[in-house]
Amino acid sequence: MWSFSFWRRKVRVGPMISAADAARDEREWGKAADLYRTIVGHQPRLPHIWMQLGHALGELGQAEAAEGAYRQAIALNDHDAWLHIGNALRAQSRTAEAAAAYSRALENKPESLEIVRSLIALGATEHLSYATMGAIRQTLLDRRASLLSQLEETELDIARAGIVPLQDYATFRDEHSVPAAPLARDLTIHVLIDARGAVPAFLKSTLTSLKAQKIESWTAWILATQDISAHPIASEALIDERFHFVDEMDDIAHLRGGNVLLLQAGVTFDPQALAWLAFAVETFDSGMLYADHDHGIERWSSSVLRSDPHLYWTHDRYFLADCKEGPAFLWLKEFGADALSELIRTSVDQVIRSHTTSSAGGLHIPLILSTIISLPELAERGLPDPAVPDRNRAAPAPQFDAGPERIAVVIPTRDSLGMLQCAIDSIQKRARQPNLLDIVIVDNRSCQDDIKSYFASNARHPTFCVIDFDEPFNWSRANNLACRYLTQDIVVFANNDIEMLTDGWDDAIRIDLQDLQVGVVGARLLYADETVQHGGIVFGQGEGLPLHEAMKRARTEEGPSGRFKTKHRTAAVTGAFFSIRRELFKSIGGFNEELAVAYNDVELCFRLRSAGYAILYQPAIELFHFESATRGQNTTRSDIAWDHRERMGLSMLYPSAMAHDPSVNPQWAKPPPPFTALRDPPLSQIVDYMIRGSRADPWAP
């Protein structure tokens, strides 16, 4: 039982402890040491006060006295004091004793990094066991993992805070400016502006934007008709000698063979535009350069109300051939005779279109460097201007006749007769040349009588065959097995849970596959409620999982720049409906049978891209896809774990392709769904995107 005198003494030293701690916190070490010494004089069995006394004495440089205080704490069973005894002994250059003290401390705290560091600093590694170092290493790895996780979450939070919904684009442009370009040498850029039949106010906007450029080494040639040359706008050439108005093609013939920047009057430049062009010209060896643009209406307050951004991606001639609106400007390394001749016949817009849709690659700068100006509302109320010749009529697109290639449609199935019949009937009914179709069923252990009867009734049909696949389900092996027996020119791999919606789908495939640079043609898949299930596959979004583009969007929605409903290159397409030339499928090695259920279609697309082939998303071919109706969705832990393991397998084969998608402009925000929000990418990501785009084959994974 405690005595009254003890409690009286406790009360008496309490204020003294507070005063000592306050002196310690103020780093008044002499005062603190005196107070702690007084306290232990009254209460010698307080180990934590002995420890504080040792700390204060150590700060005063009294290492031997500090050692004594720490040993008093040890005597009172405070074994944490061994570390501090080691420090005091080390300060006295008593190295061996210090190492022994640290060793005792390590017995008490075997995972203390501070103690291990002290022993290593002394060179006393003989006190460190393999088990101790292994435990320390694991502790550090755990700590690093925790810090990295926190860092990743912080980075995601920063990214989320910086994104702007697409519908708020005007505000985004008002508050975010184009970053300054990396420094480039002083390069003279020759600008050729097609102002034939232009609205003079639009031309004024173009010229004003040129004068506002951060680099001044440019010369502009304005190709104008007589009405423009006689307009006050032509006085710009008298004010700034860099402007030259010409009305004859002979006056720009000297530009032939040199570098030229082509644009239509009414296109205005961001102040950083030519600086970025100069950087790209100096840094990358590309025959042509273009960038993103938007639309704008100039307001009397000198600001521009911007809308409708067009964010392109790694050069894609298929999209640029079919899209409603191509790049607003184009820099050509060599302005050739063909380009000059086409300009005479048509317009700058048509020269841009024909060059960007050629097989030659171009480098895309992922920044909105220009704006196409529209008439302000006030001007729209005026009378129409006199008619001018229309030079912007699209050149006739090349027409391809569908050839006589025979198509084999390979469908793996197990039972589910009703669904299978729907797929087959719709495929045959919607084909333009059904006589050139063969249906190949890969039967994976069907056991229901109705489907067995169906197979038997069609057994003698020359365009229908069934291949038995009596093995555990492996989608890749099933399709590879079927292809061993095929002789047709084209193979379509199709799920049994689809319904074809497009008339003439077969000829669409034949035409696309006439281009020998095309490896695979995929389709646009819809859910039963007519929302989009698949419009190509996008990578590098959110947590890095592959995502179906346009998923759950309305069937009628065109998407940014019309990409949801325009043929274009994509990183991969789904094997639910997937067409390829048979000889190419054979030469590339077929599907990877290590991927039995999922990602086998993606892996083949990556392999084809590595070999230089394009993967096309063709939205003109539409189907219903009653997704995974045969095998079901991944809902159990086992199925989810299997899917995760196959995704790991794909990632191990193509780690870069999983993180970087050439069909995604870095100005799109990463959090899914894709193409719904904007961001300002760091300069490093802009340049990295351009480096990837400048490779010999920028679409190779």
Question: Would you tell me the overall average pLDDT?
Answer: 89
- Cα gyration radius (Å): 37 Å
Overall strand count:
23
Helix-strand makeup class: alpha/beta
Q: Any idea what the shape is?
A: flat
Helix content: 40-55%
Beta-strand residue percentage:
15-25%
The number of helical runs is 26
Unreliable runs: 1-11, 388-396
Q: Main sheet, how many strands, which sense, barrel? A: 10 strands, mixed
N-to-C terminal Cα separation, in Å? 79 Å
Offer a few descriptive terms.
701 residues, ten-stranded mixed beta sheet, flat, GT2 family glycosyltransferase/tetratricopeptide (TPR) repeat protein
List the helices and strands and how they pair.
Elements: H1 4-25, H2 29-42, H3 47-59, H4 63-75, H5 81-91, H6 95-108, H7 113-122, H8 130-162, E1 164-165, H9 169-175, E2 189-194, H10 200-211, E3 218-223, H11 226-229, H12 236-239, E4 243-246, E5 260-264, E6 267-269, H13 273-283, E7 288-298, E8 304-310, H14 317-322, E9 329-332, H15 337-345, H16 348-356, E10 363-374, H17 377-380, E11 407-413, H18 417-430, E12 437-443, H19 449-457, E13 464-468, H20 475-483, E14 490-494, E15 498-500, H21 505-513, E16 518-526, E17 532-534, E18 537-538, E19 547-548, E20 568-569, E21 577-581, H22 582-588, H23 600-610, E22 614-625, H24 637-653, H25 655-659, E23 677-678, H26 683-693
Helix pairs in contact: 1-2, 2-3, 3-4, 4-5, 5-6, 6-7
